[in-house]
Write a structure and sequence with these properties.
Length: 354
């Protein structure tokens, strides 16, 4: 039995490797084509486009993992079915459930690998890709065109016009409010140097102090300011939520909620990572009844049908997630519902077959 299980595992792993070799270069090629449109702008060269695409590959693998799992499992088990090896395994005493445990074990191992990639490799490489591209194109990360980057804590609102690498912020506005919620001070600096964890050195500063009777105006060539933003908070503000690690997302969502700001996009990103992991396992579970439930179909037909199911699920998941952000729906429910629905359907289908 152990030999048969090892053989099934080997075939499924090979199927997933083949699916990865096909899908990852294909989608990376689309990324490269998109980047080649910007070649020639600023100092952005063809080598930069290739580097950006390469650094984005771990993120693309994570995004493609559910489809790699589906196509790899269908392809491997389908090949065994076509060659009548599944029949031989059944005759040798393996039940369908025992055969199914091998791809499920691979799926769990795959989830552990994806979790490690998601925390320690993909975010760092993706952020490096975004930063190097922005520098070459002479662009800055903004939350909205012409609006700059906005954040706040309990008593202050901070607006940053631009963030320039490595440690410079341009066009700074700081609005300080008193305990009653009235504007007490407004400071504007042409630029700021981020000295350490929370110390900023503001240059060419204009300060307006508001009192009940008048407005006092003062100027200074440079002023030190104790920022309420930590270095990791600046990183999260200038990077899209999907490029952050789970730990960064949790920390920044907590920061936004603690300061009364909307954290919907970050909460959605957190739970979508969990939902994507569950989706990978759901696709493997769904692949098993594809083989045992469609025994008369050829391998090609099974792969085509699996591809259609995978693309349909992906598009539906994207539509639901975007609609949830617009309608402010529960991020936990929206993120986990597609994968949990597929897992339920796969289990019900497996019970009917077995």
């Amino acid at each position: 039995m152990k030999t048969a299980t090892r053989y099934i595992i080997k075939q499924v792993v090979m199927g997933m490797v083949i699916a990865t070799v096909v899908l990852l270069p294909l989608f990376s090629f689309f990324d490269l084509l998109d980047q080649l449109d910007d070649v020639g702008k600023g100092t952005y060269q063809t080598s930069d486009a290739f580097l950006y695409t390469f650094l984005l590959m771990p993120r693309r693998f994570i995004q493609l993992a559910p489809f790699i799992a589906l196509l790899g499992t269908v392809g491997a088990l389908g090949k065994l079915a076509v060659n009548l090896e599944l029949v031989a395994l059944r005759v040798a005493g393996l039940s369908p459930i025992q055969i199914s445990m091998a791809p499920i074990a691979i799926g769990i191992t795959m989830l552990i690998g994806i979790a490690l990639l998601e925390q320690f490799i993909a975010p760092q490489l993706q952020q490096q890709a975004i930063t190097s591209r922005a520098v070459a194109l002479d662009k800055t990360a903004e939350l909205g065109k012409g609006l700059g980057i906005w954040t706040r804590n309990e008593r202050n609102i901070l607006r940053i016009g631009e963030m320039l690498p490595p440690n410079r912020a341009i066009d700074i506005e700081i609005m300080h409010f008193d305990k009653q919620g009235f504007l007490a001070m407004h400071s504007h600096a042409e630029y700021a140097e981020i000295v350490d964890e929370q110390l900023w050195k503001l240059h060419h500063v204009t300060v307006r102090t508001f009192t009940e009777k008048n407005i006092a105006l003062t100027s200074a060539s440079s002023v030190e300011w104790q920022s309420f933003l930590r270095a990791e908070d600046i990183v999260t503000l200038t990077k899209p939520p999907e490029s952050l690690s789970p730990l960064e997302l949790v920390r920044h969502a907590a920061f936004l909620q603690a300061t009364g700001q909307k954290a919907d996009a970050y909460l959605m990103a957190i739970w979508r990572k969990v939902g994507s992991a569950l989706m990978t396992l759901a696709m493997i579970l769904l692949a098993i009844p594809f083989i045992f439930g469609l025994a008369r179909e050829g391998l090609g037909s099974k792969l085509v049908l699996a591809s259609i199911v995978g693309v349909s699920v992906y598009l539906l998941d994207q539509i639901i997630a975007n609609a949830a952000l617009l309608l402010h729906l529960n991020p936990v429910l929206i993120s986990l519902l597609p994968s949990l629905t597929l897992i339920t359907l796969a289990i019900l289908w497996l019970r009917r077959i077995f």
